[in-house]
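Hey, can you fold this one?
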Amino acid sequence: MTGLICSVKECAFNEKHLCCRQEINVGKENALKERDTMCQSFNNELNENATIFRMPSLATKINCDAVNCAHNKERICRAENIEIGDASSDSVVSTKCESFTLGG
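Sure. Predicted structure:
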């Protein structure tokens, strides 16, 4: 499991910079830079699906489609810690994995 810090304030799963999901999905498969990635688990609506996950976790399983990332091993992030950030956080495409490192 990877330590996950989330600075996406608009995400319903963010609780004091920790993610309340037990696992997230990071994409895109052809990413070459951190700005090409996104948190595909982003949800800006506090709805029934989001309220199921209200306990923040220090460690999160990160499924990762960014196969060009050095931390990606068999589509799982193996970095010790990562940060998910945002440009404007109004949609999934404005989120990004700030820990993406080219070299996969």
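Residues 11 and 44 are 5 Å apart (CA to CA). Let me know if you want another pass with a different chain boundary.
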